[in-house]
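Protein in question filed below.

…
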Amino acid sequence: MRPVTAIMGSRVYGFWLMSGLFIVLLEHWTELDLTVSGWFYLQSEARFWGQGSSLANSWYQTSKMLMVLLALFVLGKALMGLFRPGNLSTLRRQQWAFVAIMAVVQPCIIWLIRAQSQSACPRSIIEFGGESLHLRLLDATPALS
């Protein structure tokens, strides 16, 4: 007989897996992403709401800085577990080490995916005054003429 925590854990993972698949399919078969982007686009000014404002820029920079500080904290906590093993259990040290490694690897993975992706940010697509085509996640790239 499986423990209750194992059953609940598999249900939680199943929920997140199904939610992710639903979002990918929703994005692929609807114009929901363009609709939501259109809510924030000011047609009369040909720009997105908050684009270029100092407040929006400071929020963007501050959130990036907070994520860097969080990653440094996690990395420090993992290193502390290596040099002072009596402070944390082996499982807890392994967990902190995993989170620290992921804090470094995850931005690199996103950077690589973004560099290889043909998807453009909303302000770069033709519908919002940019030069790029709107491609869905699973669309083939059109041939260059």
